[in-house]
Specification:
The complex is a heterodimer.
Chain A lengths: L14 H15 L16 E6 L5 H12 L3 E6 L11 H9 L5 E6 L4 H8 L3 E7 L5 H15 L6 E5 L6 H12 L3 E5 L15 E3 L10 E4 L17 H8 L11 E3 L12 H4 L6 H20 L14
Parallel strand pairs in A: 1-2, 1-3, 3-4, 5-6, 5-8, 6-7, 8-9
Chain B lengths: L20 E9 L4 E10 L2 E7 L7 E5 L1 E6 L12 H10 L2 E6 L10 H14 L3 E4 L15 H6 L5 E2 L8 H14 L3 E3 L4 H4 L4 E2 L2 H6 L3 E2 L1 H18 L3 E3 L5 H12 L4 E5 L1 H5 L21 H13 L4 E2 L28 H10 L6 H7 L2 H6 L15 E11 L18 E11 L2 E5 L1
Parallel strand pairs in B: 1-4, 5-6, 6-7, 8-9, 9-12, 10-11, 12-13, 13-14
Antiparallel strand pairs in B: 1-2, 2-3, 4-15, 15-16, 16-17
The chains are: A alpha/beta, B alpha/beta.
Chain lengths: 314, 434
């Protein structure tokens, strides 16, 4: 019986929990090759997606994950809803709670918002990204991808390159890597590496050469939409690209390259790297689907996945 | 230099009947070096006898009532958050006999007319003596000086743009020069906005992990250094409000050693807690300046201990429930403090051995009174009774419904504290009895 009630951050998981979810995802991955991909597992369950930030990729991944498990889904976006009329997150959560959803997946620009939803409803809450804080399903899918590509997690060395300051992906991944015995080195300009982050248990380097020693080069998006006017963290994208862009010359043989997407080709990642055999970017998308299926499964059912029944054709 | 006819800072309160009381306790008046069991008799509001006794209930302490130089009464403008009546009732419940209110209201206390009308309201509503600081700059905009001489004549206790720094050095210099006419100190909120901008909490390991934007220590200490350099050059007194960073304390020490006339305050929350508390993402752990590291807390404690910081001030900052009920990032800065100050200090600092009780009592009463030229509460025959009776052993749980304040945004909600205010006597009237 799982005791994971919500997935608000990586810290909700023990190592056993993480490994169980990855194992479930591995089992679910095999169903992707079937002609009929839909499983009856969560039939009759309601999964609500509450998205306060624009998202195409993450929302699509969560929606498809729920649908593949036969759950009913409902999606509420910030624009065009009562949120625009000034309704507080607490009130929205209470309103949604009245429908007795089994899971609420929340994306919100403010840190801690999924926790506020969790406090207001009986549903299991999954954090699909809260501000610069956490994005735990991204971290799990990254672990899943790394485990498949490298063959293990213990002792794997991941270089995380770019705008760590504004990145919830980086924060979750650093924590998740530590959880499973892997190590992280953060690489980027001093203005984009927050002071004090080494306390999370990672190394820091301002030199792109530091990626040479890594098994995995994890490239972060340069999130210019997060840069406030007048607070330029780098003088120009051109200079950033020259100093930290992940180019074919900088990627060694045997290294794999990951990116949470969407990519700014030619800024943080050279298109030749993005399209090379070393790139795991599309694998990450596929991993995202099965990992999110596994998370839903883990929250809503007891015990590890034993048998995966294909959906009977009525 | 000819000065305008200046009266002392106006401290006003509602007329209340003077009480006759007999109090038996361990009497501590640090200013007079009194610490002994005694019976204190108050007749018609005046202390008429202090009779030493062999024993008194060990848990009961009678001390000079407290003085808080940093309170937001939110009046005028946000009476939904606090009023003069509720704010001073909260002060009474916290053991205070006098408070000074901040001018960042709507309208701002930047003209004599606003100040005079507030003093009139306080004469009708205030349960304890209440004074008002006026703004340094009109609208707190940091551009034009207020009419400080007229404001001082009307009774302004001091001048501050609290909540905002005086960003332009040139304006602060002029304010320091001109404040000589008003003969009142400037109370400064030290914040270099180009460093604190967007900051949600102390910049450090916790902000790095949570992803909250950092408000670095340097954002405070750099402004402290600048303000002290200006004060030294103008030879004018300044008071530094709610210090939070050890670098600020170091700057304060250097300036005092160099002879600058500078006083400072620290809040119970900065003395008791660190940025680790923010991990809860509770909006009631969000304040400006932010909670900082254990090293910073230790530096503040040391400064309070040796008198470099002579005042403990609450920075009582009421906020409407709905504003402190959402996400951390949306919430306004500030926490309430009047009703929990003593209990928090006793629980987290006295009982742990970090600060002696007598010292805490002194920093809550005489320290702030002297900085702002207010009457120093004393336990002495012939003096008006300004007394607080404390029960050092009473345990109580901080709950929203217990507060007299109209707001409940306390960083201590749900916590059980040791030490409680049992009775408060202000200007001879019993204004609180538990």
């Amino acid at each position: 019986m799982t005791d994971v009630r919500h997935l608000l951050g990586v810290s909700d998981l023990g190592r056993d929990d993480a490994e169980r979810i990855l194992d479930t995802a591995r089992a679910l991955e095999r169903t992707l090759d079937r002609e009929l991909k839909k499983l009856p597992t969560l039939r009759g369950r309601l999964v609500v997606h509450l998205f306060y930030e624009s998202s195409t990729r993450t929302l699509a991944s969560f929606e498809l994950a729920a649908k593949r498990l036969s759950a009913d889904t409902m999606t509420l976006r910030a624009s065009g809803s009562s949120v625009d009329k000034g309704e507080s997150l607490k009130d929205t959560a209470q309103t949604l709670g009245a429908y007795d959803p089994d899971v609420i997946v929340v994306r919100h620009p403010h840190i801690g918002a999924p926790g506020i939803v969790a406090a207001q409803t009986r549903a299991h809450v999954v954090n699909a990204g809260d501000g610069k804080h956490q994005h735990p399903t991204q971290a799990l899918l990254d672990l899943f991808t790394i485990r498949a590509a490298v063959g293990r997690l213990e002792g794997v060395h991941v270089a995380i390159v770019g705008d760590v300051l504004h990145s919830r992906v980086a924060r979750s991944l650093i924590e998740a890597l530590r959880l499973v015995g892997a190590t992280a080195t953060l690489v980027g300009p001093p203005t984009l590496i927050p002071r004090g982050i080494a306390a999370m248990g990672c190394d820091v380097s301002y030199d792109i050469e530091a990626i040479r020693h890594a098994d995995v080069v994890y490239v972060l998006r340069m999130q210019h939409e997060r840069m406030l006017s007048g607070a330029a963290f780098v003088p120009s994208l051109r200079e950033y690209s020259a100093l930290y862009g992940v180019t074919p010359e900088r990627v060694g043989a045997g290294q794999v390259v990951m990116h949470p997407g969407p990519m700014n080709r030619g800024v943080e990642i050279d298109p030749r790297v993005a399209d090379s055999g070393a790139s795991l970017v599309t694998t990450q998308v596929r991993s995202g689907l099965v990992v999110r299926m596994a998370v839903l499964y883990d929250l809503l059912t007891a015990g590890p996945l034993v048998v995966v029944e294909p959906l009977a054709v009525a | 230099m000819r000065r305008l006819a200046l009266r002392p800072p106006a401290l006003v309160r509602r007329e209340t009947p003077r009480d006759t009381l007999t109090l038996v306790a361990r009497v501590i008046d640090p200013a007079q070096r009194i610490d002994q069991p005694a019976t204190v008799r108050v007749e018609d509001g005046i202390v008429v006898a202090i009779e030493p006794r062999a024993t008194a209930p060990a848990e009961l302490v009678l001390a000079p009532a407290f003085v808080d130089p940093h309170v937001h009464l939110r009046t005028p403008g946000r009476e939904d958050e606090e009023s003069i009546a509720t704010g001073t009732a909260a002060a009474a419940a916290g053991g205070y006999c006098a408070i000074l209110a901040m001018p960042n209201t709507d309208p701002v206390v930047d003209s004599a007319s606003v100040l005079v009308s507030l003093l009139e309201r306080a004469r009708d509503e205030a349960l304890v003596s209440t004074g008002f600081m006026a703004a340094i700059s009109k609208q707190l905009a940091g551009e034009e000086l207020t009419e400080m001489a007229e404001l001082a004549s009307a009774g302004a206790a001091a001048f501050t743009d609290d909540g905002h720094p005086v960003s332009e050095a040139g304006l602060l210099r002029r304010a320091l020069q001109y404040s000589a006419l008003a003969d009142r100190p400037l109370a400064l909120h030290c914040e270099e906005r180009s460093l604190s901008r967007d900051g949600q909490m102390h910049e450090g390991a916790v902000s790095a992990e949570l992803g909250l934007s950092g408000w670095p220590s340097l954002g405070e200490s750099l402004m402290v250094e600048r303000d002290l350099a200006l004060a030294a050059d103008e030879r004018r007194p300044v008071h530094l409000m709610h210090l939070s960073a050890r670098e600020s304390v170091a700057a304060l020490r250097r300036a005092r050693a160099a002879g600058v006339e500078v006083s400072a305050e620290a809040t119970p929350h900065h003395l008791c807690m660190t940025h680790e508390l923010v991990r809860s993402l509770d909006p009631n752990t969000k304040m400006n300046p932010p909670l900082r590291t254990e090293d910073d807390r230790r530096a503040l404690l040391e400064a309070v201990r040796d008198g470099t910081i002579s005042c403990i001030a609450t920075d009582h900052a009421p906020h409407a429930l709905h504003e402190k009920d959402g996400s951390f990032e949306e919430a306004p800065f500030g926490v309430t403090g009047l009703e929990t100050a003593f209990a928090a200090l006793n629980t987290f600092l006295v009982e742990t051995g970090d600060l002696p009780l007598e010292l805490v009592l002194e920093r809550l009463s005489r320290g702030p009174a002297e900085v702002f030229g207010l009457p120093v509460p004393r336990i002495a025959v012939g003096e008006p009774a300004n007394l607080v009776l404390l029960d050092l052993e009473e345990e109580w749980t901080v709950r929203a419904e217990r507060f007299r304040s109209r707001s409940t945004n306390s960083w201590l909600l749900g916590q059980t504290l040791r030490g409680a205010v049992v009775r408060t006597v202000a200007a001879g009237a019993e204004v609180f009895a538990a």
